């Protein structure tokens, strides 16, 4: 019997896990997935973990389970060296993995754009560990403010989906926490969402930007657009206008760049934000044995936004295309199918825009139905990872016994 082709997948996010799971179904491939975390989680839900409104159990799936279910090998570690000439990946734990094909799915991290003070004085939301750390800081700040009869001053920079949803989720956390509630939230919270551009949620129609800003104002977040942050310190943010915005808890959600770990791949072409440039078959432009998918990749001829939807479709595509390449044939080019976008502001409101030909009635949706669709997208992913029964069980648990943040009230 012919020997198997060794495929190493770096990163177990949406793109990496989808690719590893799909590729491992091919018995001619031996697939190893490498990730620093012992569990897979849905990165678009990090704002819920950060606010304490989503449980870890049931929503963080051990990679060992998915590896057993799908037939790949899991290594919990991080790469420290990649030798493209020798085709090896060296891990932090000392293991050296040989590969025939390397799939880089290392995701993205916050882009501070070199602005002074951001790294030292702000919190980020790139990983589950970041979310847990942010929740602890939020909890401590809420307790301290309430105990001392002061305001909980909080600032988020970035008016995209992450920043907007995080703002709403903090409000939801205060509303749902034992000993707090809407009345306490209105009295306690003094928060601001800062966006450099002229409106928040720029990927959505202007009506959504306007309505979401109004909703945030209603639940306790002041929205500042056209406000450029030029520095941060331990007291708050400094704007280009000269204004200082005081806030005890500072969160940066204003942009992303490819994960720093991609720097291990010397000599490969990159985009402006560090993404690896790839061909329409998702092979890096200067090494056909190295593939890049998800947030850390860029098709220069047709750039795509760093979203879970893109990542999932690229992972699915690679599951079909890579075996064809190994067999010596040329697969069709990756084709992205935009199935719409949805954003949810906690329990308060939501908006979605969809192609009329792709379901949900098409056009622009808002309110409860948009929020249901938003959760449905996550549950669909969860069902693919854990199985339909577990996903349904977790959905029912959230309905009848939802997570209740512990803010020490």
Mind explaining what this structure looks like?
The longest helix is centred in the middle third of the chain and has 20 residues, at 128-147. Helix content is 33%, strand content 26%. The strands form eight sheets. A six-stranded mixed beta sheet has the order 5-2-1-9-21-20, covered by helices on one side. The radius of gyration is 22 Å and the shape is globular. The model has no long low-confidence stretch (mean pLDDT 94). It has 409 residues and is of the alpha/beta class. It has three domains: 5-109 and 257-326, FAD/NAD(P)-binding domain (3-Layer(bba) Sandwich); 118-252, FAD/NAD(P)-binding domain; 341-400, no CATH class. Helix 1 (14-23) packs parallel to helix 9 (308-326) and helix 10 crosses helix 11 (388-400).
What's the main sheet like? Answer: 6 strands, mixed
Runs in which pLDDT lies below 50 for 5 or more consecutive residues are: none
Rg, please? 22 Å
Overall tally of structural domains: 3
Helix content: 25-40%
pLDDT averaged over residues: 94
CATH topology of the largest domain: FAD/NAD(P)-binding domain
Globular, elongated, flat, extended or rod-shaped: what is the shape?
globular
In the CATH hierarchy, what is the class of the largest domain?
Alpha Beta
How many helices does DSSP assign?
11
Instruction: Determine the strand fraction and express it as a percent band.
Output: 25-35%
Strand order across the largest sheet: 5-2-1-9-21-20
Number of strands: 25
What class, by secondary structure content? alpha/beta
Distance between the termini: 64 Å
Oligomer: single chain
CATH superfamily of the largest domain: FAD/NAD(P)-binding domain
Architecture per CATH nomenclature, i.e. the level-2 architecture of the largest domain: 3-Layer(bba) Sandwich
